[in-house]
Amino acid sequence: MSNKIRSHRDLEVYRKAFGAAMRLFELSKSFPKEETYSLTDQVRRSSRSVNANLAEAWRKRRYQAAFISKLSDSEGEAAETQVWIEFAVNCGYMTADDGNELFRIYEEVLATLVGMINHPETWIISPKPTG
Fold this sequence. Notes:
It is built from four helices and no strands. The termini are far apart. The relative contact order is 0.16. It has a single domain (13-122), classed as 23S rRNA-intervening sequence (de novo design (two linked rop proteins), Up-down Bundle). Helix content is 69%, strand content 0%. By secondary structure, it is mainly alpha-helical.
């Protein structure tokens, strides 16, 4: 198989964030029922939004400002997810080991997103020269 990136799903950052979101989904199944409409929903929503915004950014690579904007949205959602992870650990809904591992994964996701934001020229689709 070629190493060429053909879709957002081929991005390592997307795969990491997706795996972490799925892990959070599984862990959040055991959160208390009284957290259903607060912490459980929030951590699931923000973790999934990281991927949704990455997918949108990928499709907007023709427009640098739009690309960066969607990556910035993804970055914000990743940071928000880290906050919810901290709450889950501190409230005793998630083990410190699980929380630390997920927090670390989101640190890697954030570092990659910041790198993409700081160097959009690597990712932007340049218009083909005419003539």
